[in-house]
Design a protein that fits this description.
rod-shaped, mainly alpha, 2 domains
Amino acid sequence: MDLPSNLPAPQILSDSTDSRFNQLERTLEQFQENARHMGVIASDFNSRSQEPLNQKIHTLISGLQELDHLRSQFSDVKIPLELLDVLDQGKNPQLYTKEVLERTLQKNKEVNGKVEIYKKFRACLLKELGEELPEDTIKYRNIRDTNNS
């Protein structure tokens, strides 16, 4: 099965590759949780909330710095722009993957169907040419067999 050319080729994840994604996921989850905590503190703000709010702001800044540091580890990762649109719409990225695979399978079926039709056409054409121009057809097949060897 051929993948569309605009998608990155699938890669087998090594332990180090897998761990860098796990580290990124943990960092993003921590950042998200800290942002949620900051929102709770800010929504019920009073004078005693100032110090915890300041701490959460510093924690978020540290999280952003860590994400910026991790960024260099992902320079080889290619993400289709279409996936970002799916995420912006709040859709599940796994559904995007499923849709891409379904489209790829459908396209693969279409291409395989065309290949089969061309094979049948070639066989029919060679048969008809063999009946009309037997000597030329034999020469063609000899040349073709020599070139394919």
